[in-house]
Amino acid sequence: MDDLLREFLTESGEHLDTVDLELVRFEQDPNNQTILRNIFRLVHTIKGTCGFLGLPRLEALAHAAETLMGKFRDGMPVTSPAVSLILQTLDRIKVILAELERTGGEPAGVDEDLIGALERMSEEPVPAPEPVPVAAPAASGTLVPQVLERALKPGEVSLDDLERAFRDTAVEIEAPAPEALAPMPAPEPVRPAARPEPVRQEAAAAAPAEARRAEPARSEPQPAAESESGPVSKVQTIRVNVDTLEHLMTMVSELVLTRNQLLEIARRHEDGNYKVPLQRLSHVTAELQEGVMKTRMQPIGSAWQKLPRVVRDLSSELGKKIDLVMQGAETELDRQVLEVIKDPLTHMVRNSADHGIESGAERKSAGKPEKGTIRLNAFHEGGTITIEIADDGKGLDLSAIRRKAVERGVATEAEVERMTDAQVAKFIFHAGFSTAKAVTSVSGRGVGMDVVKTNIELIGGTIDIQTQLGAGTTFTIKIPLTLAIVAALIVSAREHRFAIPQVSVLELVRVQPGTDHAVERINGSPVLRLRDRLLPIVPVAAMLGLDAPDAPASTDEGFVVVSQVGRQRFGILVDGVFHTEEIVVKPMSSKLRHIPLFSGNTILGDGAVVLIIDPNGVARMVGSGTASGQPGEIEAEAEGDENAGDQAVTLLVFKGGGDALKAVPLSLVTRLEEIDASKIEWVGGRPLIQYRGRLMPLVPADPAQAMKRDGAQALVVFSDGERSMGLVVDEIVDIVDEVLDVELVTERSDLIGSAVVRNRATEIVNIAHYLPLAHDDWGQPTHRAVPKAPSLLLVDDSAFFREMLTPVLKAAGFRVAQAADAEEAMRHLLGEARTDLVVCDLEMPGRSGFDLIEAMRKAGGRLAEMPVVALAGTMAPDSIARARALGVADCVAKFDRSGLVAAVNEIASAPLDAAA
Amino acid sequence: MMAANTNTAGTPAQATGETTDYVTVLLGDELFGLPIDRVHDVFIATNLTDVPLSPPEIKGLLNLRGRVVTALCLRRRLGLPDRTGDGRNMAVGLEHGGEAYGLLVDQVGEVMKLANDTYEPNPVHLDTRWRAVSRGVHRLDGRLLIILDVEAVLAFGDERPAATAA
Prior knowledge:
CATH superfamily of chain B: CheA-289, Domain 4
Oligomer: heterodimer
CATH superfamily of the largest domain in chain A: HPT domain
Strand content of chain B: 35-45%
Strand order of the largest sheet of chain A: 10-14-15-13-12-11
Helix content of chain B: under 10%
Distance between the termini of chain A: 64 Å
C-alpha cells in the first residue's frame, strides 16, 4: 500500500474518533461554536484528503456530512436525528476505510441513501442566518425535534441539492480558513453563542466541566497542526511504528538484566574500580528504561474515546437519559495494558447503562434525578492505576444473586447465607459454575463479566465491587502500570527461588513455632493470627509439591508473605526472603502455561531463571475466588491443597426421582446443561435432544421419574469420544469435595453404593449402568477390531475407584480383573489367568504400587516385561521419576479418565509380542 | 557452549541423489538424527530451574544468553528411563512457535550428510511413542539412525496423542 494512503488511514481513523466524541458533546451543547468548528475542520480535512487521493465515495459522504454541519453553523437547530444521521455517516466512512485498509482500494457501492438523507436534512427550512442570535439561546439545552415531512426520492432532488451543495462548498472553503486563524471570528454569531456558555457551566456539576476541559485540551492542537502547517513551530512529533517501540523495549529489558548481572558481580567482588562506572551505567539504564516506558504510555482517555458514543447510542436505544462523566482521562498507562482493558471497560460501561441505570420514570419515583450518571475515574496510586466505574442506578439485587447462585448450583443455600454482601456480589463474575473447566454455565448474565474479570486478572489486575441497593454500583479496577518490568520480592522455598510481584505484597511476617507469630492449624489447615484476625496460610512447598512424599511435615518456620487479591487476603508461607528486584517479566513457555500458579518467569541478576508466582492463581486455590479470608471459610478453603493425600473426590450432587440425594464424581461429568423441555424429541419411544449438532439420547436418573414436558430441564452430560448421553435429573444441588467412604451395595446395578456427603446419606450413582441404556453398543469395543480383548489387572486399594474405573476400562475394550492390594495383585499375576497389562495405583497403604512393580520386575519372565500404567494421586516429579525408572509405561493422574484410556489404548495397540 | 561440529566424515558421500544434513545425538547406544536446519545451536545445559507441577518431559528452564529456554528431556519424551550416572547435560537448541527449547540428550555426535538411498520408513512394529516422533530410519554402516521429527517431538502436553490402531 501507498505510504500516503497508509498515513491517510491512520490520520482519518484518529480524526473520526475525535469527531465521534465531539459530536456527542456538541449534541448536548449545541451552541458551543468551538466544538462545531473543531468537527467541521476535521471532516473538512478528511474530505480534502479524499479528493486529493482520488477516493470519490468517501469524498461524497464527507461532503454531504459537512454540508449538514455547515447548516448547524449557520444556525440550524441541532437535533438528535440530525446528529444520529451524521454519526451514521461516520460509521459508513469507517467501514469504507476498513475496506480500504484491507484491499488498498475503495470498495464499490453507493451511498445514495445516506447522502440523500443528509441532503434532505440540510434542505429543511432553516431560520434565516440573520436571526441566529435570537434563535440560538432559545434552543439551548432543549432539543427541538425535526421531523422529516416528505420523503423525496434521491433522484428527484439531486440536481437541486447538487447546486446547493456547490454553493455551500464555495462558502465553506473560504470560511474555515480565516476562522481558524482568527481567535475571534465574526463577532456577530459568536457572542450570543458564548453567552449561554457560563450559565451551562454553572449548572453542570463540577466534575463534568472538568472532564470537558480536559478533552478539548487534548484535541485542540491536533486540528491546528493539520490544517495550518504554517511556519509556527508546534510540539514536534513523529509517528513511530509500534514494532520499533516493542523492539526498543525488549532491548532495554535485556540491558536491565545485564545491569542486574553486573551489580550482582560487583556485590561479590570488592573491586572498587568497577564501582563508579557501574553506578553510572545503572543510572543511565534506569533513565533509559523510564524513557522507553514513557514512549509506550498512552492516556487512558484513548480507551475511553468510544464510550460517549456507546452511551449515547444505548441511552437512545433504551430510552434512558444517561450522563457520562469522565475524570482523569489524561492518566497514562502502558499501551499493552490499555489494549487489554479497552474492551472490558466498554463492556462494563455498557452493563452499567443497560442493567445499572433505571428508566427515567423509575428514577423519578425513587426520588432521584431523571438523568442517570455513569462516572469513570482514573488515577495513579502507588505502582498501580485505579479505574472506577460508578453508576447511580439501582445497585445489585443481592438477594436475587443469592437465589441465582443457589439455583445454578454455584453454592449451597447455607453457604450463601454465610457470605458477606461483597462475596455475594462477586458471583456476577462467575461463568455459571465455579469449576468452570468441567462444567460450563447454562447461559445468561455473568458470562460477560467473567470475561472482564479474566482479562483484568490476565494483566495482574484485580476487580472489586461496592454496591448499595437503590444507590448504585461501583466497580474498582486496579491494574499495574506496566507489564514488562515489575518490582518483585525474591523468596525461597526449599531449594527453589521464586518471585512474587511486589504489587500484591502487603507485608512480611516472620513466623516461628513458640513465638507470638506461630502458624496454627484448624483440622490440618494452617492459619496465622494477625492483628486479631485469622489469615489463611498457603505453604508454597506443599502447594507446589516440592516436598518428597516421605519427607517430614513442614516445620511452619519461615516468612509469611501477606498478599491481597481483590478483597481476599491470604499468607504465602515461604522459607526465606531475599530482596526485591526489578524483574523483566518473560512469558511462560506454552508447554507450561497451563499451570495456574505461575504468571511468567524471569532471569535474575545472577543469571538464574526463576518462576513468578501469580497471586491470582494462589488466591483461586485458597478459595476459588469468592472467599475473603473470613475465618469461617478457612476450614473449607485449605482442604483442597492440604489434604491431597486423603483423596477427596469432587462430587456433583443432584436429585433425580424421589428425594434422595445422588452423587457422581465430577471428573466423569462432561458438562451440565439446562435445556428447554419442549425441545425433547421422542424417537422409537426414546427421548432424544438435538445437542451441538447431534442427537443425544436422554436417560432418566430414575425409571420412575417423569420427564418434564415444558420448562427447564436439568441434564448431566457424559461423553466418551463422539458419543454423549444426557442424564435427566430433577435438580442439581451442589458440587462438593468429600473424602468418600463408600458402602457398596450389590443388589442394584444403578448404584455403586452410598456414602455420607455433607452429613447426608447420598447414593453414589454407577454411570456404567446408564451408558448401555443410552447406546446399546456402549461398553463394547466396536470401534477397534481387537481379535481378543486384552486383559487388564486394576490394582487400587479404594473400592470406589475400582468400581469407577472398571466400567471405563471395559468400555475401552479390556477384560478387567481387580485387586485390592499388592499381595492380591501378585497372586493374580502369578496365577493361571493371562494378564496383558497392569493399571496400578502408586499410593496404597502397606505395600505401595512401587513395591508391586518392583516385585513384578524381580519376578522375571513375563512379569518383568509386562507394561504397567501407574495412577498417581499427585504428579510429584520424584514419584514420576521413580516410576519411570521401574519401566512404567505411563503415569496418569488418578482423575484423568481420558488420559488413562489413551494410555492403555496406546499400550494395547502396540503389538503385545513386541512389547514382551 | 560449543558450535555444532561440521565434520562430514560420517558416510561415504553418495554422489547420486539429494542429501540431507543431520545433527546426530545419542541416547545410550541409540543414534538419532535431527535435520540441521532446525538445530540452532548445541550447548551444555546448566543451572536448570525446576518447574513444579510441570509435565514430566520438561526438565526445567535455563538461561541461554539472556533467553529463557525450556529444557525438554528426549529420554522421557521417548519413554526411556532416565540416564544413570552423571555426565554433562548436552542440549540441542530448537525453535518452535517463537519459543526456544533445549532438547536434552546424552551426547551430541557429528553432522552427517545422508543420501536418500539409505532411507527407509519406520518399521511397522516400532513403539507407538517412537513412531509418533520419527520420520524414518537411515541404514548406516553397522547401525541405524532414527530421524526425529522436530515438530512431533515438541508436540506434547497440549493433548495426549490419541492412540491410533495399526
